[in-house]
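SAMPLE LOG
Freezer: B-3
Tube label: C17
Construct: single chain, 135 aa
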Amino acid sequence: MGKRSYSLIELLIVIIVVGIIVAIGAVICYQRVVISAELAQVKHAISLLAQAERIYFDEHGQYLAINSSDPGAAIDTLKEATGIDLRPILSLTVKWEFSMGGAIIKAAGRSGQRVSNYVVEYNCDTGTWTITRPQ
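STRUCTURE (predicted):
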């Protein structure tokens, strides 16, 4: 009986196939980490907005509404009323569309972004978070 060994080409093919499988897994893992980081970033922004909204509500007896087409105006109003600098939140409007109505602060991922189809909501009255993920 003769011993059969693997040729160098066969070993290289196995190494390449394993490398491709590992690379695909790494890309999927990376995408999940990036989305998780973006969700954490928008949750922090919503927390700042909620803090400012609570202060505004205590002083004016109502929540301030944010028009999603011009969030800068409401953010400027909140900054003047509360002293909390919310301008860094505007950099997130590239990926997220913010809206506030009553006690609900909502950020919806814009289409064409990694976070499209994600919706993050915070209820200022109950302190509850809702994150809707794509199916």
